[in-house]
Specification:
TIM Barrel, 9 helices, alpha/beta
């Protein structure tokens, strides 16, 4: 979502020049694992997260993990994602839960989601990789099957895998429910990754209604040692909106 002024393969170096030590992205599958490995190593950045194959993106699919009848496709996607993750040394993979199709039974979608996550968690555990589940707001993605932190937590508990964690995107959380610091504290044991963006426009994190400087301190107090992903849409050129990053870096 950042550095889109440049072609995808050039964004790794752009991120490094801007001061980032690691990157995450939606999908690498347009390129071979070797190509992604070469550009990330040349830039000196870690690849810490990407999504498993998520179905027909151009047709509006946003994950197939919850879709009955697509289990074999999901399992093949797990295998594909693992091929990339092992090559790149990526420690986390996100399985987008998906949108409940019109006319599909919601309970059947939830059960499919749970069973597919059990399979994926087992496969990823063999390689010491964390599986992530994200709650996504239904304003941006109407019908998304997991939309609140309590949804995400209850599904993680139903799966019961130690390497399944919550991907806690604070933008989505603010849109759906707010009370961000309290929810970070409530679910910190299950938190595997944090993402940020300004709200409601989803621009730079120093814009909008969320006080991220407070939440950064809260994460420190909770002992969170993971990455904070910048999943926002720059209001202009990416580099011009990075004043917030320099502020965070200067604050230590």
């Amino acid at each position: 979502m950042m550095f889109t002024e440049a072609p995808f393969l050039d964004r790794f170096q752009a991120a490094a020049i801007a001061g980032f030590k690691a990157v995450e992205f939606l999908f690498p599958y347009e390129y071979t694992p070797e190509v992604i490995e070469n550009v990330s190593k040349a830039a000196g950045v870690e690849v810490i997260l990407f999504n498993m194959p998520a179905g027909n993106w151009s047709a509006g699919e946003r994950g197939i993990t919850c879709l009955p009848g697509r289990e074999e496709e999901f399992r093949k996607g797990v295998e594909t994602a693992l091929t990339y993750a092992r090559q790149l040394g990526t420690p986390r993979l996100h399985a987008m839960a998906g949108i409940v199709p019109i006319g599909c039974d919601a309970a059947a979608c939830r059960m499919t989601l749970i069973e597919n996550l059990k399979f994926a968690a087992d496969e990823l555990a063999k390689h010491e990789i964390t599986l992530l589940l994200e709650a996504i707001n239904t304003r941006d993605m109407p019908g998304f099957v997991v939309s609140t932190q309590s949804d995400s937590y209850s599904i993680c508990e139903a799966v019961g895998a130690a390497n399944l964690k919550m991907q806690m995107d604070l933008y989505h959380m603010q849109v759906m429910e707010g009370d961000l610091a309290t929810k970070l504290k409530r679910y910190e044991a299950r938190c595997g990754h944090v993402q940020i963006a300004g709200c409601p426009e989803r621009n730079e994190p120093d814009t909008g209604e969320v006080r991220y400087e407070y939440l950064y301190r809260a994460l420190d107090e909770l002992g969170y040692t993971g990455w904070v992903g910048c999943e926002y849409r720059p209001a202009g050129k990416t580099i011009d909106g990075l004043g917030w990053l320099r502020t965070v870096q200067s604050a230590g």
